């Protein structure tokens, strides 16, 4: 019986032969002996690399080689690079890591070999560009524009993920809030989300627990540019008064919220995210209109020359104001860090601390956190 591991190793060895053989073909002077890792193989295009080293498993069109020619059982996460809904959300950094260090480096199958001794980083960039050309619908923004999720600011990128977020009061009345957020992509440019908050509080002296205001949201990407590193979306939420005013979890009024979200990636994996919106309650006698401006700046660091685990410290500055005469804007800062929990990095966590900067009466310092599962990249227990 052949195990996937052995198939993977054999395939990698066979591939080395293919790649080295290819190098001899394209350059008569290069011998297989000198074409070692230190001597990059001479390929003129990403397509050439693809044909020499990848087609045997991934197929010419990126959909996977035919069953009878492939010689291995495909894992459930085996990619179809021509399928825009599943290939575009992956970032180039993720692909680069898998191609450089092989599947296991990101908790994927051992069948996907490591190419670090066969291709230069430049050549890996060329083959990634070729894979990108296999999805031909330009409306899908690439995963590179999917900036790390801040604790409060809404992202511009339409997502497939499940998030459990929480708050714990660090001062004042004891309180713990939790929110389940489910986000689901609708085609190339849109997303819907369902938000279910549940809170425990001791505001009235004894512990009370209740659902908060349930919300349904919709987000629409308006524009994006991979070259400029920018993405712009607008969205709306319908918030139902399902909370309990006695426990302080809402319940005053139905609220319509509308917002814009912008993400900008800069050189060196630094980024800025902006999110501004307005909340319009149906019963303005019970709940005032309000607006908010939220921003997050951060930088992503990664181990192993960018191919290993990525973590992202961020700083959010948040302003919100009830549209009522004589009331000033509340400003908060939220230093935080997002860390991957598993190797595949599709299960992440973030922790932060929310500090009111002004109007501190009745506004508490809070610990904020979330756990996030990007379920397109596999089950919750996969890739650890
Ligand atoms: C021996 C077969 C084999 C060869 C050769 C091979 N791959 Fe793969 N590759 C796989 C398998 C199997 C997976 C899926 C791993 C999983 O999902 O567990 C994969 C996954 C990947 C992924 C990750 C996709 C994702 O969704 O994250 C990328 C990127 C990739 N391969 C690129 C390449 C490139 C580029 C080459 C050629 C330079 C190549 N592969 C050669 C078998 C192969």
Secondary structure elements and their pairing?
Blueprint: H1 4-26, H2 46-53, H3 55-58, H4 67-70, H5 84-87, H6 92-101, H7 121-132, E1 161-169, E2 175-186, E3 190-201, E4 208-211, E5 215-225, E6 230-239, E7 255-265, E8 270-281, E9 290-299, E10 301-302, E11 310-322, E12 330-340, E13 347-356, E14 366-373
Antiparallel strand pairs: 1-2, 1-14, 2-3, 3-4, 3-5, 5-6, 6-7, 7-8, 8-9, 9-11, 10-11, 11-12, 12-13, 13-14
Helix pairs in contact: 2-7, 6-7
The structure holds heme C.
Residues 11, 15, 49, 53-54, 56-58, 75, 77-79, 90, 94-95, 98-99, 103, 108-109, 111-113, 115, 127 line the site of heme C.
In short:
By secondary structure, the chain is of the alpha+beta class.
So how many helices?
7
The helicity comes to 10-25%
- Radius of gyration over all CA atoms, rounded: 25 Å
**Percent strand:** 35-45%
**Global mean pLDDT:** 88
Report on the structure:
With 384 residues, this protein is an alpha+beta fold. It folds into two domains: 4-132, no CATH class; 143-377, Porin. It has seven helices and 14 strands. A twelve-stranded antiparallel barrel has the order 1-2-3-5-6-7-8-9-11-12-13-14. Helix 2 (46-53) crosses helix 7 (121-132). Heme C (HEC) binds at residues 11, 15, 49, 53-54, 56-58, 75, 77-79, 90, 94-95, 98-99, 103, 108-109, 111-113, 115, 127.
Key structural traits:
384 residues; elongated; 2 domains; binds heme C; 14 strands; 12-stranded antiparallel beta barrel; disordered N terminus; Porin; alpha+beta; single chain; 7 helices
């Amino acid at each position: 019986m052949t195990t996937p591991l052995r198939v993977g190793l054999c395939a990698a060895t066979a591939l080395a032969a293919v790649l080295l053989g290819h190098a001899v073909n394209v350059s008569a002077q290069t011998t297989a002996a000198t074409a070692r890792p230190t001597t990059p193989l001479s390929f003129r295009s990403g397509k050439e690399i693809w044909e020499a080293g990848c087609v045997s498993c991934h197929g010419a069109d990126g959909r996977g080689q035919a069953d009878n020619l492939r010689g291995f059982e495909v894992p459930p996460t085996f990619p179809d690079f021509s399928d825009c809904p599943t290939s575009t959300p992956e970032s180039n950094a993720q692909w680069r890591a898998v191609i450089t260090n092989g599947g296991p480096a990101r908790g994927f199958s051992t069948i996907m070999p490591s190419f670090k001794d066969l291709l230069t980083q430049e050549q890996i960039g060329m083959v990634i560009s070729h894979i990108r050309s296999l999805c031909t619908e330009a409306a899908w923004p690439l995963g590179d524009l999917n900036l790390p999720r801040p604790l409060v600011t809404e992202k511009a990128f339409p997502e497939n993920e499940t998030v459990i977020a929480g708050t714990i009061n660090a001062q004042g009345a004891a309180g713990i809030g939790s929110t389940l957020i489910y986000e689901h992509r609708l085609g190339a440019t849109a997303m819907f989300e369902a938000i279910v908050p549940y809170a425990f509080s001791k505001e009235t002296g004894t512990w009370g627990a209740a659902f908060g205001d349930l919300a349904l949201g919709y987000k629409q990407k308006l524009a994006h540019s991979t070259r400029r590193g920018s993405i712009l979306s607008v969205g709306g939420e319908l918030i139902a008064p399902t909370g309990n005013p006695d426990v302080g979890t809402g319940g005053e009024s139905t609220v319509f919220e509308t917002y814009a979200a912008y993400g900008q990636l800069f050189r060196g994996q630094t980024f800025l995210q902006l999110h501004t919106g307005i909340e319009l309650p149906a019963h303005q006698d019970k709940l005032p209109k309000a607006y908010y401006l939220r921003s997050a700046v951060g930088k992503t660091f990664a181990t192993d020359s960018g191919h290993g685990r990525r973590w992202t410290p961020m700083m959010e500055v948040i302003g919100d104001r009830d549209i009522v005469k004589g009331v000033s804007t509340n400003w908060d800062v939220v230093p935080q860090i997002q860390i991957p929990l598993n190797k595949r990095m599709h299960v992440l966590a973030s922790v932060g601390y929310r500090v009111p900067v002004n109007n501190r009466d009745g506004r508490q310092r809070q610990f904020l956190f979330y756990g996030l599962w990007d379920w397109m990249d596999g089950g919750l227990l996969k890739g650890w």
